[in-house]
User: What shape does this take?
Amino acid sequence: MELRHLRYFLAVAETGHITRAAEQLGIQQPPLSQQLKALETELGVILFERQPRGVALTAAGRALRTDALDIFARLDQTRQRMQRMARGEEGMLSVGFTSSAAAHKLTPEVLRACRRRFPGIALKLSENNAAEVIEQLTAGTLDVALLRAPVGRPEGLRFELLLEEEMVIALPLDHPLLRKRGAPAHAAAQETISLRALAGDAFILVRRPGAPGMYGDLLKVCERLGFTPRVGAEVERMLSNLNLVAAGAGVTVVPASMAGLNPHGVAYRRMEEADQLRAPLTLAYRERDDNPACAALVALTHRIAARHRRQGDR
Assistant: This one.
């Protein structure tokens, strides 16, 4: 049975007349009658009762009409779905991000906009450090990722800078610098502190394999200031930095968009060297990804990032 047989059958069923149906279909009446007879032979049933002024559906014909209409309706749904997928309006996307990238307001804004603009795209979200995110992109288990500084640039991956922001210093609430300056621990961070003033502190840092770019940039700035940071602990995620800072284990630096997290244990201050230490927000994806939904999300992310830049949000 071919779809054209069902189309012929439905045309006759709707018109109740083989000749008129043949005219609508643009074929001759004898071939149409032959196709209908062949369909009845294949199914082993009589579909039409021949009457003086046309034909009428039998019980089997009425049942086939219902099924045929359902088949064509589902085919139309499939066609529309394929067209939506081709336009990037439907499908599935695996989106990864680092904890510090997730803390920037751009990330949830992009995810909300994607769900609102493309309700047919199912998002699978995961969080890892930068090294793991890039491994997953390379392996094809992630489609798109938001991270800070890339951990290497493997062939086949594309990295696009969206925004940059300054880094801020995170201190435990009882840090001597806060008491010495006499400012409330949670004072608005107009007050600045030099990294040099933290030369005697233990630094809590994300492990170098997980965030080598930001780790290395911090070391370079400290070396220019005449000291090498004493590493008190290395963690897998930047959010863990702040938990350890709150516990009094040391100090750290984080992107400004993370300032305010863990407010009952951490105070944030701008650093005098803010122009030397910047936190990028980077979009990463495979260069030859053939998933239209991926291209749609990339374009949407760039539009939102451009709006942030116009508003002066770095």
